[in-house]
């Protein structure tokens, strides 16, 4: 090598510059790391170089990040959402605008009953199936542990009842009970399903009066929908 | 400029107390700059977005250590973004270890240090000083800082042996320091 090493290799300040640039590897890096923790003068040298090098970013134009990045960051840091339930309902992509009014109606009791508490996770789905006139909207409110259902259209076939099921991957359908007649109803969500709430697909079958006799669905699927988080 | 600095310092102090609203305000103030830096290093938007998000997670988790590092607030924030972006860039390489950021993972114990002696006016001279270096050396410093080049990368790029590269770059840094503090 023709270069005469005029710089002592142990020159601390240049070592600090190498740390700031991230150039050290292996043992050199481990040694510098240990020093950073103990040697304030050395840490200060590294900080000085960072203060100098950062000027290389002066020419970098700010680029506003997409709104979804902000949202993703906040929900990653603060898993309890800070937006209200109503905002979440409006953000929900899963239903038409007309159906939203119905879902909002379903959600109203949730808002009224615990006005001071932030709502917990809420999932919703629109349930429907081909060859069936039955359409239902469902809102699962995890803080209450129940499912609010509203019939949009359709009925049980003559002489049959509607039974609600939770379907989870690799498990037999779990009966959530026979739905009473009427347009709006609430059924309890078994507590042991709460952890898997996000994966639930809700289904409605037609069954003989009293419900499926042995706990497994026997009738055809009248309506079906996978829940989505609001 | 000073009031900007004070405001960002105040926001970081509030974030250190767990103030989410202050965190969101800080995000709105500086995310475009940090995203710009991540984009410069990483080029693809998706990875730059991830790096920016990771940077803000580090900012949230380490804001209570900000006072201990002696950096100006924008330097601290940008350095976190730069190091996070470069770590991501290098993550695919074998044996990579993340860059250390004083006042982030590592901080020497003790009372608050005085502010870095490097004045803003000195830092502003960096670009001119880099340009005054022999062209290759300036390019090598920029390559290390903005492209995350290692000594091995630089040696390959400039077609010199590794040790020569290190000597070169260190000479460049020495000239740089002299030029900037002149």
Automatic annotation (TrEMBL), chain B:
Pfam families to which the protein is assigned, alphabetical: Sigma70_r2, Sigma70_r4_2
Residue stretches making up the RNA polymerase sigma-70 region domain: 26-93
Top-level taxon of the source organism: Bacteria
Name of this chain's protein: RNA polymerase sigma factor
InterPro entries, per database record: RNA_pol_sigma-70-like, RNA_pol_sigma-70_dom, RNA_pol_sigma70_r2, RNA_pol_sigma70_r4_t2, RNA_pol_sigma_r2, RNA_pol_sigma_r3/r4-like, WH-like_DNA-bd_sf
Ranges for domain RNA polymerase sigma factor 70 region 4 type: 125-175
Lineage: Bacteria, Pseudomonadati, Pseudomonadota, Alphaproteobacteria, Rhodobacterales
Family recorded in the similarity comment: Belongs to the sigma-70 factor family. ECF subfamily.
UniProt keyword list: Sigma factor, Transcription, Transcription regulation
């Amino acid at each position: 090598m023709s270069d005469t090493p005029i710089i002592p290799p142990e020159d601390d300040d240049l070592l600090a510059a190498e740390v700031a640039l991230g150039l050290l590897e292996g043992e050199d890096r481990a040694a510098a790391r240990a020093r950073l923790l103990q040697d304030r003068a050395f840490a200060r040298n590294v900080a000085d170089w960072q203060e100098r090098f950062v000027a290389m970013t002066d020419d970098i134009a700010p680029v506003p990040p997409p709104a979804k990045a902000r949202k993703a960051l906040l929900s990653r840091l603060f898993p309890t959402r800070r937006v209200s339930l109503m905002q979440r309902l409006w953000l929900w992509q899963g239903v038409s605008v007309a159906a939203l009014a119905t879902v909002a109606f379903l959600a109203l009791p949730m808002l009224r009953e615990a006005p001071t508490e932030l709502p917990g996770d809420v999932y919703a789905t629109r349930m429907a199936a081909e060859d069936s006139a039955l359409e239902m909207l469902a809102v699962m409110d995890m803080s209450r542990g129940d499912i609010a259902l509203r019939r949009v259209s359709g009925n049980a076939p003559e002489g049959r009842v509607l039974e609600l099921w939770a379907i989870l991957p690799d498990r037999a359908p779990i009966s959530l009970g026979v739905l009473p007649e009427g347009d709006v109803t609430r059924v309890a969500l078994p507590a042991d399903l709460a952890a898997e709430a996000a994966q639930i697909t809700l289904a409605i079958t037609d069954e003989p009066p009293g419900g499926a006799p042995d706990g497994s669905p026997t009738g055809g699927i009248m309506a079906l929908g996978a829940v989505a988080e609001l | 400029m000073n009031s900007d600095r004070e405001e960002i310092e105040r926001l970081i102090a509030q974030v250190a107390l767990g103030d989410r609203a202050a965190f969101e305000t800080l995000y709105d103030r500086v995310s475009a700059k940090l995203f710009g830096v991540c984009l410069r290093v990483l080029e693809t938007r998706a990875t730059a977005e991830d790096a920016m998000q990771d940077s803000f997670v580090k900012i949230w988790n380490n804001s209570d250590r900000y006072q201990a590092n002696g950096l100006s607030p924008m330097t601290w924030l940008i350095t976190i973004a730069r190091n996070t972006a470069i770590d991501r860039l290098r993550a695919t390489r074998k044996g990579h270890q993340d860059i250390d950021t004083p006042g982030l993972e590592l901080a020497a114990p003790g009372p608050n240090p005085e502010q870095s002696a490097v004045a803003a006016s000195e830092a502003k001279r960096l670009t001119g000083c880099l340009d005054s270096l022999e062209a290759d050396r300036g390019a090598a410093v920029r390559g290390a800082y903005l492209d995350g080049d290692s000594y091995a990368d630089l040696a390959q790029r400039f077609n010199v042996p590794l040790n020569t590269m290190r000597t070169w770059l260190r000479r460049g840094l020495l000239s740089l320091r002299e030029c900037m503090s002149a």
